[in-house]
Design a protein that fits this description.
Blueprint (H helix, E strand, L loop, with lengths): L1 H14 L11 E2 L2 E2 L5 H6 L3 E7 L8 H6 L6 E9 L3 E9 L19 E7 L20 E7 L27 H13 L5 E6 L5 E3 L7 E11 L2 E11 L12 E8 L11 E2 L3 E3 L3 H11 L8 H11 L23 H4 L2 H9 L20 E4 L2 E4 L9 H12 L7
Helix pairs in contact: 6-9, 8-9
Heme C binds next to helix 6 and helix 8.
Length: 405
C-alpha cells in the first residue's frame, strides 16, 4: 500500500535534510466521481503534505509546553473525491496513541486527538488569502473540526454510554441493545464535530442551522502496516452561502491535534495553504501566485535584514531576543505561510492582523489597536525597503521551520 511505502520513504528522506525550503508546491487533484464509494477512494490519488508546529503564541500551560517542546513536522496523506454537488477529503496521519476525550465534564483536563480542514471563503486572489490560523477580519474561513470525543447519550445524566447498559447481559437486552445503539447514534452529543465560520481565533461562530451540509468522521486503525493511524474524512457541499467551490483552483489548510500531548486550540500542527484543483494548468498558475519563486533571492542578506529590522519584536529560531508577548514567534513561519502572505505581512501589516494574546491580560503588548472597527497592526510597514530586500527577507523567513518527523 502507498502509505507504508511513503512512511518508509519519508523516514529515509527526512534524515537527508533535503533542500526543501521552497518545496511546498503540492497540488491536490480530486478524483471526479458519480458517488463517493470505497472503490472511488481506492482509486483516488494520494498526496503527501507536511504540517508544522504552530508557534505563533506561547501557551500559558507549563505541562503542555514541556510535552510540546521539541515538536518536529508531521506528515499527512490526503485524497479527495468530487461529485456534482459535494467534495470530500480523506486525511491520514500517524499517531501512536489514541486519545479520546471522555464526556463533557472532563474537558478541563482531558484532551482529544483531532483534525480540521479549513477553506478560504474568498479565494480567487491567491495573494490575498486569510490568515492561516483560523482566518482574519474581512477574510473569513470555513473550518470543519472533528475531535475524537466519546459519544455520550444522557437519558440518565451519566454522560457515558458504556455505564448505561451491561453489554454482556445479552439475555436481558439482545434486541433492545440494538435499538439502544440506534437511539444513541441518533441522539448522542457529537459535540466536537462542528463547522465554523471564523475571522481569526477567538472570533469563531459555529454554524448551527441548516444553511449548509457537512459530514465529518474519524477512525483509528491500529497496526495498519505496522503503524497506528487516524483516518479522518470531511465531506461538504460544493456551494453554500459561506463558500462556493467552482471549477477554479481553491486552497485548503489542514490542522492536526495530538491529545496525548495536551494539544488544543493553537497548540497544533498546521499546513500552509494547499492548492486543490482538477485542472493542473490552472492549479499551477494559482500555486505560483500564492508561492512565487524566490530562486534569485539572497537568503544570507535576508537573514541580516531580519536581524536588523525585526528581531527587536519577533523571536525566531529558538532565540529569545524579544519579549514573547511582543509579536508572533516566527520559528515555523516558513512552514505554514505562503510567500505572498509574508510579502504582504511586511509591506502591509494591517491587511491581516494576528489577534495575539488576550488583550486584557497583556495590555502593554497589544498586537493591534482599533481605528473605528478596523484593526491596525502595531507592526510598522517596511515598504520603504527595496523589492530585492523584501524578497531576500521573505526567502529567509521561508527557511524558518523545523525539519523531520
Ligand atoms: C514593533 C514590533 C515589530 C517589528 C519591528 C516587526 N514586527 Fe512583525 N509583527 C508585529 C506584531 C505585533 C505582529 C502581529 C500583528 C499583525 O499580524 O500585524 C506582527 C506580525 C508579523 C507577521 C505575521 C505572523 C504570523 O504568525 O502570521 C510576520 C510574518 C511578521 N510580523 C514579520 C516581520 C518582519 C519580517 C519584520 C522585519 C522586517 C517585522 N515583522 C518587524 C510586530 C513587529
Amino acid at each position: 500500500m502507498n502509505l507504508l511505502n511513503k512512511i518508509i520513504k519519508t523516514t529515509m528522506v527526512s534524515s537527508l535534510v533535503t533542500l526543501s525550503a521552497f518545496a511546498s508546491n503540492v497540488i491536490i487533484e480530486p478524483l471526479k466521481v458519480e458517488t463517493i464509494t470505497l472503490e472511488a477512494w481506492d482509486k483516488a490519488k494520494e498526496f503527501e503534505i507536511t504540517l508544522y508546529p504552530q508557534t505563533t503564541v506561547k501557551f500559558n500551560d507549563k505541562k503542555a509546553n514541556e510535552l510540546n517542546k521539541d515538536l518536529k513536522t508531521k506528515t499527512a496523506y490526503i485524497k479527495a473525491l468530487q461529485t456534482n454537488s459535494e467534495i470530500s477529503f480523506k486525511v491520514v496521519w500517524e499517531d501512536k496513541t489514541k486519545t479520546i476525550q471522555k464526556g463533557v465534564a472532563n474537558r478541563q483536563n482531558s484532551f482529544a486527538d483531532g483534525f480540521a480542514i479549513q477553506f478560504a471563503s474568498n479565494y480567487e486572489d491567491a495573494t490575498k488569502l486569510p490568515y492561516i490560523g483560523m482566518g482574519s477580519k474581512n477574510r473569513p474561513v470555513v473550518v470543519y473540526l472533528q475531535k475524537a470525543v466519546e459519544q455520550h447519550f444522557e437519558p440518565n445524566g451519566k454522560e457515558e454510554i458504556s455505564t448505561q447498559v451491561n453489554r454482556n447481559n445479552t439475555y436481558a437486552f439482545n434486541d433492545s441493545l440494538k435499538q439502544f445503539d440506534k437511539k444513541v447514534e441518533a441522539l448522542a452529543i457529537k459535540d466536537y464535530q462542528r463547522a465554523f465560520i471564523s475571522e481569526g481565533f477567538r472570533s469563531m461562530t459555529q454554524i448551527k442551522d441548516n444553511s449548509t451540509f457537512f459530514n465529518a468522521k474519524m477512525q483509528y486503525k491500529e497496526n495498519f502496516f505496522s503503524s497506528n493511524i487516524w483516518e479522518g474524512e470531511i465531506t461538504r457541499v460544493l456551494k453554500d452561502e459561506y463558500l462556493k467551490i467552482s471549477s477554479k483552483p481553491f486552497p485548503i489548510a489542514i490542522a492536526i491535534w495530538d491529545g496525548e500531548k495536551m494539544q488544543r486550540d493553537g497548540l497544533k500542527h498546521l499546513s500552509s495553504w494547499i492548492t486543490v484543483s482538477t485542472n493542473q494548468q490552472e492549479a499551477t498558475k494559482y500555486q505560483q501566485s500564492m508561492d512565487s519563486s524566490l530562486l534569485n533571492a539572497n537568503i544570507k542578506n535576508g537573514e541580516n535584514l531580519v536581524k536588523t529590522n525585526c528581531a527587536s519584536c519577533h523571536n525566531y529560531k529558538d532565540e529569545n531576543n524579544a519579549n514573547k508577548y511582543m509579536a508572533p514567534n516566527l520559528s515555523n513561519i516558513g512552514g505554514y505561510s505562503t510567500t505572498s502572505y509574508l510579502q504582504e505581512s511586511i509591506l502591509e501589516p494591517s491587511a491581516v492582523v494576528v489577534p495575539g494574546y488576550n488583550r486584557n491580560a497583556h495590555k502593554n503588548y497589544e498586537w493591534y489597536y482599533l481605528d473605528g472597527k478596523n484593526r491596525v497592526s502595531t507592526m510598522p510597514s517596511f515598504s520603504y525597503l527595496s523589492n530585492k530586500e523584501i524578497e531576500d527577507m521573505v526567502a529567509y523567513l521561508k527557511t524558518l521551520k523545523v525539519q523531520g518527523e
